[in-house]
Specification:
The complex is a heterodimer.
Chain A: H1 2-14, H2 16-55, E1 60-64, E2 70-71, H3 73-79, E3 84-106, E4 112-128, H4 130-136, E5 141-144, E6 152-156, H5 157-162, H6 165-173, E7 197-198, H7 201-208, E8 218-223, E9 226-237, E10 247-251, H8 252-259, E11 264-265, E12 267-272, H9 278-285, E13 293-297, H10 298-341, H11 343-351, H12 356-392, H13 405-432, H14 435-439, H15 448-471, H16 475-508, H17 510-516, H18 521-530, H19 532-564, E14 572-576, H20 583-588, E15 593-605, E16 618-623, H21 629-632, E17 637-639, H22 642-650, E18 654-658, H23 659-665, E19 672-677, E20 680-690, H24 695-702, H25 704-710, E21 712-718, H26 720-727, E22 734-739, H27 745-755, E23 761-766, H28 767-810, H29 812-820, H30 825-866, H31 876-903, H32 906-910
Parallel strand pairs in A: 4-10, 6-9, 16-21, 18-20
Antiparallel strand pairs in A: 1-12, 1-13, 2-11, 3-4, 3-8, 3-12, 4-7, 5-9, 6-10, 8-9, 14-22, 14-23, 15-16, 15-22, 17-20, 18-21, 19-20
Helix pairs in contact in A: 1-12, 2-10, 2-12, 2-13, 2-28, 10-12, 10-13, 10-19, 10-28, 12-13, 15-16, 16-18, 16-19, 16-30, 17-18, 18-30, 19-28, 19-30, 19-31, 23-30, 24-25, 28-31, 30-31
Chain B: E1 2-13, E2 16-28, E3 33-37, H1 44-51, E4 59-64, E5 67-68, H2 74-84, E6 85-88, H3 100-111, H4 115-128, H5 144-155, E7 162-166, H6 174-191, E8 194-199, H7 202-205, E9 210-215, E10 218-224, H8 233-246
Parallel strand pairs in B: 3-8, 3-9, 6-7, 7-8
Antiparallel strand pairs in B: 1-2, 1-4, 4-5, 9-10
Helix pairs in contact in B: 3-4, 3-5, 5-6
The chains are: A alpha+beta, B alpha/beta.
Chain lengths: 913, 248
């Protein structure tokens, strides 16, 4: 083994830059996977933090069934129960707050002066016991301190953002909130003072960026159009990481007085003593407080999210496997090239008595070394990349980078495996080389038979994935076979196919490229075709990032076009938790409103969506007046018709289901829709299958964080009476609003907001705003994923660079001869660039088809698991853009070598032999 | 035809400065098959590279056919190498992915010359050198001697006034080598081309008209074999040794 190790060291020291390039490829690949692992862990930590803020350390939760509050005398009963360490009671309500702050206002004479201006906002307020709350649920503060006194309030940054000049402007303009921007950026600017002047609009607007609530300011509390009290802001908390209701915290008594809910609690969280089993505790006491009160363990509340977070790890394993497989192929190409270059040396060694094992082991050790170097550099680099992300997305990753040690250890081992996997083939080739054959100076061309055989194997692998997608129709079987066999076969197949494709590209596109580069056609094309494996696998590595980008844009575009864009939202919505009964009437009386309909909501448990054992979803059950569903929400009936459905729903026990249920669960008109709520199973007859009314989007738009925690997907619509009778939910959460034809939606939204201040309305938005917000989040997410794809292409660039260097090195004398017989510097440079272009073009062809096929497979997965149906329409402009990036990157990777070879004199090239 | 005056050339190798030529002067007449002979490290290959405009001297002048090639621009040097001189190397002359015919056409392909002319001229040359049946074969299918003949055909593509050969038979067996030397002498005689061959073999030099003996970066002396009615390898070796030994 010592001899093998010495040989490996000699290989590495003879070509240090090439080894470093290979290690660089592994490092980049490892960094990418490590960054994704850390980012996912950080986001998951944010989700858990959000859950903890809701659940805290409580083991059991007591809350009213179907109502907002229960009498606080229940506390006295609960406190008598055995096994309790601590009881935390909370009251929750919506309050309207108004902050009056000086703002630069344009005067009639054109000047700008600071004048007191009201900023009104609805907030979700929690009343707690200050003495125990922050110990049990510490809150990270941006400014100030925790409240101590009755008239003090802690607000979160999202609420603070709502009371800024900037947010008010965005609302007036109908722009969506920039959820990625720092919500308390205004604190960096001095506040405007009363009477302050500004010379012009530009400087006035600049000063207004500092308008917002600060520690020490007072906010008024408005209820039913009257100011009921004042609170002093003593602290500003960090916002919920994954979004959610803007909130404030006051004492329970204070909230009771301000909201008119004195003597009530919204829920009671119980921390049990050590050794007390929560399930047993619930079983013992669940009947004591009566049917109107629900007792459940907090594990039941969070189990769905925990399962789904765990399931997301599977995605990481898949991404990691593909990325590391890529770097394995780059190593294989690099080391195989090295073996070919060292052929004579290896021949001499064999003639001198080196064993096959020693020769092969030296290659394996080189691969391991490359893997180790890559891993050691890549993991810290990945953590660093995530740290940069955490700095940009401070809100979404409030605890900075979370380092998942177990996952990163797996990534480390994955890198080593990539090195070993990549070295297997070159090790075998080196070991099985005959001594005399290796000493022969003549290069043997690649056999076209070998390339053809490879093409057959590749096609078989690709067809395997297609076969799984077409013939395995059961959603669960499809998921597991797609993930374990389909995806690896597809990626592996395209990797292998890269070799014959590069030959085809060299043959048919090569002459065109040579002509454009003013090179003799044979010189360029035959160079590539002489070593198809190296060029092919390098193209294969480059294709992966491109395929990722195209797959993401194809499905992202389809989701926007076939799903979000098709939802016809009503003109406007009002949202509260819940709303008071007067709200629909108040809205209805406004001149710009044609119709206002109250909508109730219960999140019910369902089976059969997602992967059994991995996912656990709920669905939103909306209750509304059945005659408005098709009129106000403009849904289309996929099965059934509006008249029959309305009649059936009037009788009760019937629902309209989103068509995604048909696709995912095979449900049809007349079938039973089964769900459970608070452990009780309910059956409804399906009266119609409809396109989405977008109601689930509404609750996510207004309350993304808690919607994510609830893991709701799709929706069903029943009558309000069914929701009240079966789930006990009587008060509406949403009011759907139809405006008059001539109404301006932004002005109407502002009017509704003003008219319903203090009535429990948390937010009001227009259908257009909601659509714009979702599109913004979608596009931002697409952009983030695209950077991952570009990162993958960057990894492959190391492979391209390594190949070009190896090629030029091995043909140095030949290039010198070309210069000696009259080739120009420019021709050599263009020759090298031509090789890079052929690799790039092959990668583009492969990556495009792979990306589209992967998008198709993903669409099949979505349809079978969660019923979302999309059409496959590749985004041609985006594909062309991606092609430009890929070919550009390939050229960039080859540029240093091309430049170097162009500068070398003929003598220098000739003396390299 | 070829005039070198006080040519100096140094370069760095392995961190050390190497003074390959130290004021070399020589005149080579038009036509004829001449040799540059010397021991390893004497500067003969460096001289050939300078004559082929593959490098530039540090000082001194080099004239070929009245052109000062020591002051060529990069563009002029490239053009000169394409059309003004033919070069044959010891080994690895040919582009392995091109056929014999394409290798002969290579200078013309690089210069974007007319395809019909290149085709006709290359076939003419291959026929002249007895390789027309091997026109479509790649280098790995040709013997060493055949490869060198293809290289010679390439060097003659544009009928250059000078043909430079750097140890052209170093990798060949004696029979193939003799064929190549005879061919070079024939070309020099028939086509009035000045053929200058770098060699360390007295047997190769014995085919030549004049032998420039190079040592320590300068021409130590010239052996005029033609004037003496032709010398055998032994005589060449003795005289060369004397020229190199007299100055030591």
């Amino acid at each position: 083994m010592r001899a093998a190790w010495r040989l490996a060291r000699s290989v590495c020291s003879a070509r240090p830059s090439r080894i470093l390039l290979l290690a660089g490829a592994v490092a980049m690949s490892t960094a990418l996977v490590a960054a994704i692992a850390c980012a996912m862990a950080s986001l998951n930590a944010a989700v858990r933090a959000q859950l903890d803020a809701s659940v805290g350390v409580a083991h059991v939760r007591v809350q009213p069934a179907g109502k907002e509050t229960m009498p606080d005398r229940a506390l006295a009963i609960i406190e008598e129960w055995e096994g309790i360490e601590r009881v935390e009671a909370r009251l929750e309500s919506t309050l309207a707050l108004v902050a009056r702050m000086p703002t630069m206002i344009e005067q009639p004479d054109g000047s700008w002066v600071g004048r007191e201006t009201p900023y009104r906002v609805s907030a979700f307020v929690t009343g707690v016991d200050f003495e125990t709350e922050f110990e049990a649920r510490p809150v990270a503060l941006i400014a100030g301190r925790y409240p101590i006194d009755e008239n003090e309030v802690l607000i979160d940054a999202a609420l603070a953002r709502r009371m800024t000049f900037g947010d008010a402007e965005r609302k007036r303009a109908g722009k969506p909130t920039d959820v990625f921007a720092d919500p308390t950026a205004y604190l960096d600017t001095e506040p405007v003072t009363e009477g302050e002047t500004a010379p012009d609009e530009v400087s006035a607007r600049a000063r207004n960026t500092g308008v917002g609530v600060r520690v020490g300011d007072t906010v008024g509390v408005v209820r039913m159009f009257h100011q009921r009290g004042e609170l002093t802001v003593v602290g500003i908390a960090k916002p919920s990481p994954i979004g959610g209701k803007p909130y404030a915290i006051v004492t329970r008594d204070q909230l009771g007085a301000l909201s008119g809910k004195a003597g009530s609690v919204s829920r009671v969280d119980i921390v049990l003593e050590d050794g007390v089993d929560p399930e047993a505790f619930v079983a013992k006491y669940e009947e004591v407080l009566g049917r109107n009160v629900l007792l459940q363990t907090t594990e039941r509340i969070t189990s769905g999210v925990e399962k789904n977070l765990a399931a997301s790890q599977l995605g990481l394993v898949l991404i990691g496997s593909v990325a590391l497989m890529c770097s394995g192929f780059i190593i294989m190409t690099g080391l195989t090239t090295g073996v070919a270059e060292q052929q004579r040396t290896l021949g001499v060694l064999r003639c001198l008595g080196a064993t096959k094992f020693q020769i092969g082991a030296s290659q394996l050790l080189t691969g391991v070394l490359v893997g180790v170097l890559g891993a050691v550099a890549g993991v810290p680099l990945g953590i660093g990349m995530t740290a940069v992300l955490a700095n940009v997305f401070k809100q979404q990753m409030p605890d900075g980078v979370v380092i998942p040690k177990a996952l990163l250890t797996m990534v480390l081992f994955g890198s080593l495996l990539a090195g070993v996997f990549g070295a297997l083939w070159p090790a075998w080739r080196a070991a099985t080389m005959s001594p005399l054959g290796a000493l022969s100076a003549r290069a043997t061309p690649a056999s076209s038979r070998g390339v053809a055989q490879l093409a057959i194997v590749a096609v078989l692998m690709i067809v395997t994935m297609i076969g799984i997608a077409v013939f395995v129709t059961d959603s669960q079987a499809y998921f597991w076979s797609y993930v374990s066999v389909g995806i690896p076969a597809m990626f592996g197949g395209y990797f292998l196919l890269s070799v014959p494709i590069v030959v085809v590209v060299a043959r048919y596109a090569g002459p065109i490229i040579a002509k454009l580069l003013r090179l003799p056609a044979g010189l360029l094309t035959r160079t590539v075709r002489a070593t198809p494996y190296r060029h092919g696998f390098t193209a294969g590595a480059l294709m992966t990032g491109l395929a990722l980008m195209i797959g993401i844009w194809t499905n992202g575009g389809s989701a926007l076009r076939d799903w979000v864009a098709k939802i016809k939202f009503p003109d406007a919505f009002a949202y509260g938790l819940p709303l008071s009964d007067e709200v629909p009437g108040v809205i209805m009386n406004l001149p710009s409103v044609q119709r206002a309909t109250p909508i109730t909501l219960a999140n019910v448990d369902i089976e059969g969506l997602g992967v059994q054992g991995l996912h656990q979803y709920k669905t939103a059950f909306f209750g509304l007046e059945y005659d408005v569903i098709s009129e106000m929400f403009q849904v289309e009936f996929v099965e059934g018709d509006p008249e029959t459905a309305t009649e059936r729903m009037k009788q009760g026990g019937a629902v309209l289901v989103a068509r995604e249920f048909t696709a995912a669960k095979g449900l049809s008109l007349g079938d039973d829709f089964v769900c459970s709520y608070q452990d009780v199973e309910y059956r409804f007859k399906i009266a119609g299958v409809v396109t989405s009314a977008g109601l689930e989007f509404i609750s996510q738009y207004f309350d993304f964080g808690d919607s994510f925690v609830n893991q709701t997907i799709h929706s069903v619509v029943g009558s309000r009476s069914d929701v009240a009778e079966m789930f006990g939910v009587t008060r509406p959460y949403i009011v759907g609003i139809q405006l008059t034809p001539d109404a301006d939606d932004l002005a109407a939204v502002a009017e509704i907001r003003e008219a319903t201040l203090g009535m429990g309305v948390l937010n009001v938005g227009s259908g257009k705003q909601i659509r714009a917000q979702f599109e913004l989040v979608f596009k931002t997410t697409l952009a983030v994923f695209s950077t991952v794809a570009i990162g993958a292409m960057l990894v492959a660039c190391f492979g391209v660079a390594n190949l070009i260097i190896a090629e030029v090195q091995s043909r140095r004398f030949e290039l010198g001869v070309i210069r000696a017989v009259g080739g120009t510097r420019g021709q050599l440079v263009r020759l090298v660039c031509g090789q890079a272009i052929i690799i790039g073009v092959a990668a583009c062809l492969l990556g495009t088809v792979l990306g589209i096929q992967a998008a198709w497979g993903g669409q099949m997965l979505n349809e079978r698991l969660i019923g979302i149906q999309m059409t496959l329409r590749p985004p041609y402009m985006a594909i062309l853009f991606a092609w430009g990036i890929a070919i550009g990157m390939s050229l960039l990777a080859a540029a240093p070598t091309a430049w170097k070879i162009g500068r070398a004199s003929p003598r220098a090239l000739l003396s390299a032999r | 035809m070829i005039r070198c005056a006080d040519v100096h050339k140094s370069f760095t190798s392995g961190g050390r400065a190497v003074h390959a030529l130290r004021g070399l002067s020589a005149n080579v007449e038009q036509g004829g098959f001449d040799a540059i002979m010397g021991r390893s490290g004497s500067g003969k290959s460096t001289l050939l590279h300078l004559l082929g405009a593959m490098d530039t001297p540090d000082s001194g002048t080099i004239e070929i056919g009245g052109q000062r090639i020591d002051s060529f621009s990069e563009r002029d040097a490239t053009r000169f190498r394409r059309r003004g001189v033919g070069i044959v190397f010891q080994a690895f002359n040919l582009v392995p992915t091109m056929t014999a015919e394409e290798n002969v056409q290579l200078p013309g392909l690089l210069g974007g010359d007319d395809a019909k002319f290149l085709r006709e001229r290359s076939r003419e040359l291959l026929d002249r050198l007895g390789l027309i049946d091997r026109a479509t074969h790649r280098p790995e299918a040709l013997s060493g001697g055949e490869q060198q003949r293809v290289a010679i055909a390439r060097a003659l593509l544009y009928k250059p006034p000078v043909l430079l050969a750097d140890e052209p038979t170093g990798n060949l067996d004696s029979r193939s080598a003799a064929m190549v030397w005879a061919l070079l002498r024939e070309i020099a005689g028939e086509q009035d081309i000045t053929v200058l061959m770098v060699t360390h073999e007295p047997e190769a030099a014995s085919y030549c008209r004049r032998i420039f003996v190079v040592g320590d970066g300068v021409v130590r002396g010239v052996i005029d074999s033609e004037a003496e009615g032709g010398l055998d390898a032994g005589s060449v070796a003795t005289r060369a040794q004397r020229l190199l030994g007299e100055t030591e």
